[in-house]
Design goal:
This protein is an alpha+beta fold. It has one domain. Helices cover 21% and strands 38% of the residues. The chain contains one helix and four strands. The protein has a two-stranded antiparallel ribbon with strand order 1-2. A two-stranded antiparallel ribbon has the order 3-4.
C-alpha cells in the first residue's frame, strides 16, 4: 500500500510549547476530531473510539561523529 503524506510540520519549539501542543492534541483526540494547521495547509480528521496507540523511543548514533540523537514518537493508527 503506497503511503500518502497528508500533513507534516517540523520546527524547533521549547518543551513548554511542545507540552502545550500535546495537551491541546489530547483534548482534540478525546473529543474525536483533530485539526492540523500550518501556514501552508490545514487538515481535519475524525479519530475513532478505539485506535491503536504506539509510543517509540529511538537512539540513533552518527557513524562518523558518534553523536547520539533521540527520537520520541507518539503514533495513533486506525483503518477506515
Amino acid at each position: 500500500m503506497p503511503e500518502e503524506e497528508l500533513f507534516k510540520t517540523e520546527e524547533p519549539r521549547t518543551r513548554a510549547e511542545i507540552a502545550e501542543t500535546l495537551v491541546a492534541a489530547a483534548e482534540a483526540i478525546e473529543a474525536g476530531t483533530v485539526r492540523l494547521e500550518s501556514p501552508e495547509t490545514q487538515r481535519e480528521v475524525a479519530v475513532p473510539e478505539d485506535p491503536t496507540f504506539e509510543v517509540e523511543l529511538e537512539r540513533l548514533t552518527d557513524s562518523e561523529t558518534g553523536e547520539q540523537r533521540y527520537e520520541l514518537e507518539y503514533e495513533i493508527r486506525w483503518t477506515k
